[in-house]
Protein backbone atom coordinates (compact mmCIF):
# COMPACT_ATOMS: atom_id res chain seq x y z
CA UNK A 1 0.00 0.00 0.00
CA UNK A 2 1.20 3.51 -0.79
CA UNK A 3 2.72 5.54 2.01
CA UNK A 4 1.37 8.96 2.88
CA UNK A 5 3.08 12.21 3.71
CA UNK A 6 2.17 14.57 6.58
CA UNK A 7 0.89 17.09 4.01
CA UNK A 8 -1.95 14.77 2.92
CA UNK A 9 -5.32 16.09 4.06
CA UNK A 10 -6.97 14.10 6.83
CA UNK A 11 -10.32 15.75 7.59
CA UNK A 12 -11.27 17.73 4.44
CA UNK A 13 -13.53 15.46 2.41
CA UNK A 14 -13.43 12.66 4.99
CA UNK A 15 -16.19 10.55 6.47
CA UNK A 16 -15.87 10.73 10.26
CA UNK A 17 -17.52 8.42 12.79
CA UNK A 18 -17.72 9.57 16.42
CA UNK A 19 -19.13 7.44 19.23
CA UNK A 20 -20.66 9.05 22.31
CA UNK A 21 -21.21 12.07 20.07
CA UNK A 22 -24.26 13.69 21.67
CA UNK A 23 -22.46 15.63 24.38
CA UNK A 24 -19.16 16.36 26.13
CA UNK A 25 -15.97 15.60 24.28
CA UNK A 26 -17.82 13.58 21.64
CA UNK A 27 -19.79 16.64 20.62
CA UNK A 28 -16.59 18.68 20.44
CA UNK A 29 -14.94 16.10 18.17
CA UNK A 30 -17.99 16.23 15.91
CA UNK A 31 -17.94 20.03 15.78
CA UNK A 32 -14.20 20.02 15.08
CA UNK A 33 -14.63 17.61 12.17
CA UNK A 34 -17.44 19.75 10.76
CA UNK A 35 -15.42 22.96 11.06
CA UNK A 36 -12.38 21.43 9.34
CA UNK A 37 -14.19 20.31 6.22
CA UNK A 38 -15.41 16.77 6.72
CA UNK A 39 -17.75 15.61 3.97
CA UNK A 40 -19.85 13.37 6.21
CA UNK A 41 -20.34 12.71 9.91
CA UNK A 42 -21.84 9.63 11.51
CA UNK A 43 -22.76 10.56 15.09
CA UNK A 44 -23.37 7.55 17.34
CA UNK A 45 -25.07 7.79 20.71
CA UNK A 46 -27.70 6.04 22.83
CA UNK A 47 -29.53 9.35 23.32
CA UNK A 48 -31.79 9.64 20.28
CA UNK A 49 -33.07 13.15 20.98
CA UNK A 50 -29.67 14.65 21.78
CA UNK A 51 -27.76 13.13 18.86
CA UNK A 52 -30.54 14.03 16.42
CA UNK A 53 -30.54 17.62 17.66
CA UNK A 54 -26.77 17.88 17.24
CA UNK A 55 -26.95 16.45 13.73
CA UNK A 56 -29.50 19.10 12.76
CA UNK A 57 -27.23 21.82 14.14
CA UNK A 58 -24.19 20.64 12.22
CA UNK A 59 -25.65 19.75 8.83
CA UNK A 60 -24.93 22.29 6.09
CA UNK A 61 -24.31 22.35 2.33
CA UNK A 62 -21.38 20.07 1.58
CA UNK A 63 -21.65 18.21 4.89
CA UNK A 64 -23.98 15.29 5.46
CA UNK A 65 -24.61 14.45 9.13
CA UNK A 66 -26.32 11.23 10.11
CA UNK A 67 -27.41 10.50 13.70
CA UNK A 68 -27.11 6.82 14.54
CA UNK A 69 -28.79 5.52 17.68
CA UNK A 70 -26.53 2.68 18.81
CA UNK A 71 -25.81 0.91 22.08
CA UNK A 72 -22.10 0.23 21.74
CA UNK A 73 -22.19 -2.20 24.66
CA UNK A 74 -24.00 -4.69 22.37
CA UNK A 75 -22.25 -6.28 19.41
CA UNK A 76 -25.49 -6.63 17.45
CA UNK A 77 -26.13 -2.89 17.85
CA UNK A 78 -22.58 -2.09 16.76
CA UNK A 79 -22.96 -4.17 13.62
CA UNK A 80 -26.33 -2.62 12.85
CA UNK A 81 -24.97 0.87 13.48
CA UNK A 82 -22.04 0.37 11.15
CA UNK A 83 -24.28 -1.08 8.45
CA UNK A 84 -26.53 1.98 8.69
CA UNK A 85 -23.48 4.26 8.65
CA UNK A 86 -22.04 2.66 5.51
CA UNK A 87 -25.41 2.80 3.79
CA UNK A 88 -25.87 6.48 4.63
CA UNK A 89 -22.40 7.97 4.24
CA UNK A 90 -19.97 5.18 3.35
CA UNK A 91 -17.15 3.58 5.32
CA UNK A 92 -15.40 5.86 7.82
CA UNK A 93 -12.05 7.40 7.02
CA UNK A 94 -11.69 8.62 10.61
CA UNK A 95 -12.95 6.60 13.57
CA UNK A 96 -13.11 8.24 17.00
CA UNK A 97 -13.82 5.71 19.75
CA UNK A 98 -14.93 8.24 22.34
CA UNK A 99 -17.87 6.62 24.19
CA UNK A 100 -17.05 5.71 27.78
CA UNK A 101 -18.43 5.35 31.29
CA UNK A 102 -16.92 5.38 34.76
CA UNK A 103 -17.98 3.72 38.00
CA UNK A 104 -15.97 4.88 41.00
CA UNK A 105 -15.97 2.78 44.18
CA UNK A 106 -13.88 0.18 46.01
CA UNK A 107 -13.85 -2.98 43.91
CA UNK A 108 -15.94 -5.01 46.35
CA UNK A 109 -18.76 -2.47 46.09
CA UNK A 110 -19.12 -2.86 42.32
CA UNK A 111 -22.11 -4.68 40.92
CA UNK A 112 -20.81 -7.54 38.76
CA UNK A 113 -23.18 -6.99 35.84
CA UNK A 114 -23.91 -3.25 35.80
CA UNK A 115 -20.51 -1.96 36.90
CA UNK A 116 -17.94 -4.56 35.95
CA UNK A 117 -19.39 -6.07 32.80
CA UNK A 118 -21.03 -2.79 31.75
CA UNK A 119 -17.79 -0.83 32.03
CA UNK A 120 -15.77 -3.40 30.13
CA UNK A 121 -18.37 -3.59 27.37
CA UNK A 122 -18.50 0.17 26.77
CA UNK A 123 -14.87 1.12 27.42
CA UNK A 124 -13.03 -1.91 26.03
CA UNK A 125 -15.14 -4.27 23.97
CA UNK A 126 -17.02 -1.55 22.07
CA UNK A 127 -13.90 0.10 20.58
CA UNK A 128 -12.60 -3.33 19.61
CA UNK A 129 -15.91 -4.36 18.04
CA UNK A 130 -16.39 -1.11 16.13
CA UNK A 131 -12.82 -1.07 14.87
CA UNK A 132 -12.96 -4.73 13.88
CA UNK A 133 -16.11 -4.10 11.83
CA UNK A 134 -14.78 -0.92 10.20
CA UNK A 135 -11.16 -1.92 9.68
CA UNK A 136 -11.35 -4.16 6.57
CA UNK A 137 -12.74 -1.30 4.47
CA UNK A 138 -10.25 1.15 5.95
CA UNK A 139 -7.36 -1.19 5.13
CA UNK A 140 -8.57 -1.83 1.60
CA UNK A 141 -8.88 1.85 0.68
CA UNK A 142 -5.47 3.51 0.58
CA UNK A 143 -6.68 6.39 -1.61
CA UNK A 144 -6.56 8.74 1.38
CA UNK A 145 -5.01 8.64 4.88
CA UNK A 146 -7.12 7.08 7.64
CA UNK A 147 -7.14 7.70 11.37
CA UNK A 148 -8.31 5.79 14.46
CA UNK A 149 -8.44 7.78 17.71
CA UNK A 150 -9.01 5.73 20.86
CA UNK A 151 -9.87 7.71 23.99
CA UNK A 152 -8.21 5.97 26.93
CA UNK A 153 -7.14 7.67 30.17
CA UNK A 154 -4.23 8.39 32.45
CA UNK A 155 -5.84 5.60 34.47
CA UNK A 156 -4.47 3.29 31.75
CA UNK A 157 -0.95 4.09 32.93
CA UNK A 158 -1.13 4.33 36.74
CA UNK A 159 -3.32 2.41 39.17
CA UNK A 160 -5.57 4.43 41.46
CA UNK A 161 -7.87 3.48 44.35
CA UNK A 162 -11.63 3.67 43.76
CA UNK A 163 -11.36 3.19 40.02
CA UNK A 164 -10.20 -0.40 39.66
CA UNK A 165 -12.76 -1.43 37.04
CA UNK A 166 -12.41 1.78 35.05
CA UNK A 167 -8.61 1.49 35.15
CA UNK A 168 -8.82 -2.14 34.04
CA UNK A 169 -10.96 -1.17 31.06
CA UNK A 170 -8.56 1.57 30.01
CA UNK A 171 -5.39 -0.50 30.58
CA UNK A 172 -6.91 -3.09 28.27
CA UNK A 173 -7.82 -0.43 25.72
CA UNK A 174 -4.29 0.99 25.72
CA UNK A 175 -2.71 -2.43 25.25
CA UNK A 176 -5.08 -3.30 22.42
CA UNK A 177 -4.70 0.09 20.73
CA UNK A 178 -0.91 -0.04 20.80
CA UNK A 179 -0.86 -3.62 19.52
CA UNK A 180 -3.25 -2.67 16.71
CA UNK A 181 -0.98 0.22 15.75
CA UNK A 182 2.01 -2.11 15.50
CA UNK A 183 0.08 -4.76 13.59
CA UNK A 184 -1.13 -2.25 11.01
CA UNK A 185 2.42 -1.00 10.54
CA UNK A 186 3.76 -4.51 10.04
CA UNK A 187 0.94 -5.36 7.62
CA UNK A 188 1.84 -2.51 5.28
CA UNK A 189 -1.29 -0.47 6.04
CA UNK A 190 0.76 2.68 6.45
CA UNK A 191 -2.17 4.87 5.43
CA UNK A 192 -3.86 4.12 8.79
CA UNK A 193 -2.51 5.75 11.94
CA UNK A 194 -3.73 4.78 15.41
CA UNK A 195 -3.57 7.29 18.27
CA UNK A 196 -4.39 6.60 21.91
CA UNK A 197 -5.32 9.58 24.08
CA UNK A 198 -4.50 9.33 27.79
CA UNK A 199 -5.77 12.42 29.62
CA UNK A 200 -6.05 12.96 33.33
CA UNK A 201 -9.39 14.18 34.71
CA UNK A 202 -11.49 16.21 32.27
CA UNK A 203 -14.26 18.52 33.48
CA UNK A 204 -17.12 17.00 31.48
CA UNK A 205 -19.05 16.02 34.62
CA UNK A 206 -18.07 12.40 34.18
CA UNK A 207 -15.53 12.73 37.00
CA UNK A 208 -17.45 15.17 39.18
CA UNK A 209 -15.98 15.26 42.68
CA UNK A 210 -12.54 14.01 41.65
CA UNK A 211 -9.56 16.20 42.55
CA UNK A 212 -6.56 16.74 40.29
CA UNK A 213 -3.30 15.43 41.81
CA UNK A 214 -0.27 17.66 42.38
CA UNK A 215 0.90 19.31 39.12
CA UNK A 216 -2.12 17.83 37.34
CA UNK A 217 -4.86 20.40 36.77
CA UNK A 218 -8.25 19.15 35.65
CA UNK A 219 -8.46 19.68 31.88
CA UNK A 220 -11.24 21.54 30.17
CA UNK A 221 -12.98 19.47 27.47
CA UNK A 222 -11.83 21.99 24.86
CA UNK A 223 -8.17 21.63 25.82
CA UNK A 224 -8.39 17.85 25.96
CA UNK A 225 -10.07 17.58 22.56
CA UNK A 226 -7.59 19.96 20.97
CA UNK A 227 -4.65 17.89 22.20
CA UNK A 228 -6.18 14.60 21.08
CA UNK A 229 -7.23 16.03 17.72
CA UNK A 230 -3.82 17.47 16.90
CA UNK A 231 -2.12 14.25 17.94
CA UNK A 232 -4.51 12.22 15.79
CA UNK A 233 -3.91 14.36 12.70
CA UNK A 234 -0.16 14.06 13.20
CA UNK A 235 -0.44 10.30 13.64
CA UNK A 236 1.18 10.34 17.08
CA UNK A 237 0.95 6.93 18.79
CA UNK A 238 0.12 8.20 22.30
CA UNK A 239 -0.98 11.62 23.50
CA UNK A 240 -0.83 12.22 27.27
CA UNK A 241 -2.13 15.39 28.94
CA UNK A 242 -1.15 17.23 31.03
CA UNK A 243 2.62 16.76 31.02
CA UNK A 244 2.56 15.31 34.54
CA UNK A 245 0.92 12.13 33.22
CA UNK A 246 4.19 11.22 31.50
CA UNK A 247 6.12 12.18 34.63
CA UNK A 248 4.01 9.77 36.67
CA UNK A 249 4.55 7.00 34.12
CA UNK A 250 8.31 7.54 34.22
CA UNK A 251 8.54 7.61 38.02
CA UNK A 252 6.32 4.55 38.36
CA UNK A 253 8.57 2.73 35.90
CA UNK A 254 11.87 3.39 37.68
CA UNK A 255 10.94 3.48 41.36
CA UNK A 256 10.39 0.41 43.54
CA UNK A 257 6.68 -0.17 43.96
CA UNK A 258 6.55 0.73 47.66
CA UNK A 259 8.53 3.92 47.07
CA UNK A 260 6.16 4.90 44.29
CA UNK A 261 3.19 4.21 46.55
CA UNK A 262 4.52 6.68 49.12
CA UNK A 263 5.25 9.33 46.48
CA UNK A 264 1.89 8.88 44.73
CA UNK A 265 -0.04 8.90 47.99
CA UNK A 266 1.69 11.48 50.19
CA UNK A 267 3.31 13.86 47.70
CA UNK A 268 1.28 13.81 44.49
CA UNK A 269 -2.00 12.81 46.20
CA UNK A 270 -2.92 10.57 43.28
CA UNK A 271 -4.30 7.85 45.54
CA UNK A 272 -6.77 10.20 47.21
CA UNK A 273 -7.91 11.98 44.04
CA UNK A 274 -11.10 9.88 43.81
CA UNK A 275 -12.04 10.05 47.50
CA UNK A 276 -14.89 12.51 46.90
CA UNK A 277 -15.94 11.23 43.48
CA UNK A 278 -19.66 11.51 42.72
CA UNK A 279 -19.77 11.23 38.94
CA UNK A 280 -22.34 12.66 36.58
CA UNK A 281 -25.79 12.71 38.17
CA UNK A 282 -28.26 10.29 36.74
CA UNK A 283 -25.56 8.06 35.24
From TrEMBL:
Transmembrane segments: none annotated. InterPro entries: NAD(P)-bd_dom_sf, Sc_DH/Rdtase_CS, SDR_fam. Belongs to the short-chain dehydrogenases/reductases (SDR) family. Keywords: Oxidoreductase. SUPFAM superfamilies: NAD(P)-binding Rossmann-fold domains. It comes from the Bacteria. It holds the Pfam family adh_short. One of its GO terms (molecular function) is oxidoreductase activity, acting on the CH-OH group of donors, NAD or NADP as acceptor. This is SDR family NAD(P)-dependent oxidoreductase. Signal peptide: none annotated. Gene3D superfamilies: NAD(P)-binding Rossmann-like Domain.
Amino acid sequence: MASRTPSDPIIPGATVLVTGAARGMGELYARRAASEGAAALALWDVDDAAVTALARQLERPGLKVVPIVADVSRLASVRDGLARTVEAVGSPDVLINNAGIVRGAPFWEHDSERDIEGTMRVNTLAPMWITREALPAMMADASRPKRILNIASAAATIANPNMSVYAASKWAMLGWSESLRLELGRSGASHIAVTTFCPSYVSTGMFAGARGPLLTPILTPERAVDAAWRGMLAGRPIVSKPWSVKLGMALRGVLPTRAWDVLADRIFHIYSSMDNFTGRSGR
